[in-house]
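Exercise: predict the fold of this chain.
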Amino acid sequence: MKCIRAFSVLAAAAVLAACSFQNKDEREADKITHAVMNNDLRPVADDIAKGVTIPRVKVAEWSDELNAQGKLISIKEVATNCEPGWHCFEAKFEKRVYLERMRLDENGKVVNWNFRMAPSAAGS
């Protein structure tokens, strides 16, 4: 019985790990989104390229907008309508879906990140 219980726990952990899988760019976008929502870019400061400055007032505005959408549910990279050189993501919040874009330099540092509300689905 103990063996079956242990196997069940391991199987459940594997399923949860598979469900939460994100690629490297999705993890980075998730970190930035959470940092913006927390109105504090310090946790991602080392991920941003040297010379890129983002005014605190801009981060506060972004934070207000994203927090108004409720809890962040998921961020998934999408290729549809994504310009070359950019990584594009669909960020699902409780209330709305947002589209995020991120561009990296040759060292993998973020040189640009932005977001916009996704268009509403037809009939919504």
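Check your answer against the key: The radius of gyration is 17 Å.
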